[in-house]
Structure formats: C-alpha cells, structure tokens
Amino acid sequence: MNKLMFSDDVLEAATDWYDRMEELTPEQLQSYQSWLEQRHEHRAAAEYIARYFGDNEALAIAVLQRSAAAHFATSAATEGSPASHPSVPPVAGETDRIEPSASTSLLDQIRAWFSHESLQPLLAPLMLVILLLPPAIGYVVLSQPATSNTLSYATERAERQDMLLEDGSRVVLNADSRVQVTLGESQRYVALNKGEAYFSVSKDKQRPFIVDTDLGQIRVVGTAFNVDRSGDHLVVVVEHGIVEVTAAGTTLQLLAGDGLRLAEGTLSMFRAADAAEWRSGWREVSEEPLSELIAHLQQYTAREIVLDQVDTRQVFSGRYSQADVQTTLALIANLFDLKLQVTDDRLLLSGR
C-alpha cells in the first residue's frame, strides 16, 4: 500500500471533470481550463487521470495543452517577452471529435509536449511529479495481480474507508460494511455483502462493473453511484452516468439524480439531491423510512438501538448527522412524538 500527498478534493475534482469530458459545452471547457490554470497540482492531477483512464486522452491532452499555453502566454506577457508556444489542438465544439493517434501513446504525447523548449521552465517540475507517480493519488491502493483474485475489505462501526482499485475505480466504504472485489478479464465484480458503498467507476467498455447484493444487482460501464444495503432494504442513487439495476424481477435504467428503493419486496423511484452526502458525516434524505434511518445510525454506534411500539414505515425528510447518533435520535423522538431513553449499552426509542 502506498499513499501520496495529493489532496482528495483535487483528485476528486479532476476525476469529475474527466468523467464529463465529452459532454462539456464550450463554456464548461473554458471553466475547466481556468481550473487547470489555478494551480500546478490541478494540472498534475488531471494529467494523471487522463493517463490512467485513457478513454478521453486526446481531448484531455488538448485542454491541458491549451491550459499550459495560456499559462506561458500570461508568464511571457508579464516578463515582457513574446508569447511563443506550441500549436494547440482544437477542443470540443471546434471539431466533431478528437480521436487519439493510433501510433502515438499518451505518454509519447506528454513527452513531446514537455520537450518543447519554451515550456521547460513551466513544466519541468510537473514532469518530475508525473514521472514519480505510483498508480494512485490520495487514496489507499488496492494492489491486485493480473489474475482475477478476490480481495475482501471491511469497516468497523463509525469507520469509513476510501480506496482506489487497480482499474482506477474509486470505492468509499461506509461504516460497518463488507465488500469483496474481483477484477477479472471480462468483468469487474463487487459483492456488497453488508452496508453501504459509493462507487466512481473508471470507464472500460470491455469490462462492465457489477455490484451484486442479495436483493439486486447493479451494472455499469463508467459512472458514479451509491448502493445502500443496510438493514433490510436496497437503495441505489446515481450521481452521474447511467446505471442498470435488476431487482425484484425488474430491470430499470437510472440516470443522474435518480434513486431506487427496494423495501419489503416493493420497488419505488425517487429523486435524490446527493448520491452520497454521508461521506461528509451527514445524510440528506427525502421520505426515508425510519427503518432505514435507524439502520444507518446503528452503523455509527456500539450501543444497540432498540425500538418499542414505533411504526418504522413513517418517513423522514431532511438532513441528519450519522455520527452524532444520540442527537439525531432526540430529533426523531421530537418529530414523531416518541420517547428516547439512553443507557450505557442501548438507546431505546419508544412510543409514548
């Protein structure tokens, strides 16, 4: 396992830009270019993502080159020298599509780009960073051999784990959760045995990414989504891309912002504001049954949450803290006219 000193938010931002690369409008591309120009770390992270994923490498390189050219022009203007820089390929909106060269690898393009004399003062430090990069930034690397060995990962109560798989996919495992990961030659397979996980899947059309639970299966090529198998329910929420869910004998396609809930054998759809806000310690929900809410809170406390004469079909809408279990239960007790009793080993929520 290796760790690098890249901040999580920078890598996450670079990944998000890359995932949407082919869908960006000219205005959004300008925003992306401005983001790249803000800091060397932004461009280094974007370079790494383009090198690792590879699907949109030509377009990514075009934007990076344009960013570097803009930086050089600004620097040259400041120093009073002519703004000489290499030719910049067109970006989306100027041509129908930018296809990567069949004879030139991304690394060769990077080397050619970096070899331009006028860019050496600006890009030499960045080249050094990229050459020293191991295959992960800011996350624990789940090192796996080329064969399809299965690896198991688990979190304890009140623990979260942020991981980067060998294929470039990101997995954030919520508290008290269990997964098994198999990266095979024809598919990438994750068994979510318990709990909740957020997935940001690297694109690989030849190897679909499958998340399997005992209540349903999720299949994607490259997207970001959240799967919750806490308690007795299955909830899938899509952040971006398209997700195919098969559950209760039905196959549905979910788009960005769509949510699906399977509880007591019944499928229902809803719209979600955030696919996985729980990563910040908070959860924002719309009409979440109390049974699900209690299951989420139980992941964050060793004390048993006991319900007595509580209708768990009642729903809660709003935002609550998972980590501050007692305060959230007090809120629920107040909203639903319940009584909360606290002891050293349990939290009892009962009807009055």
From TrEMBL:
Residues 76-97 are annotated as: Disordered. Pfam families: FecR (PF04773). This is FecR domain-containing protein. Residues 153-244 form the FecR protein domain. InterPro entries: FecR, Ferrdict_sens_TM. Residues 76-92 have a biased composition (Low complexity). PANTHER family: PERIPLASMIC SIGNAL SENSOR AND SIGMA FACTOR ACTIVATOR FECR-RELATED, PROTEIN FECR. It comes from the Bacteria.
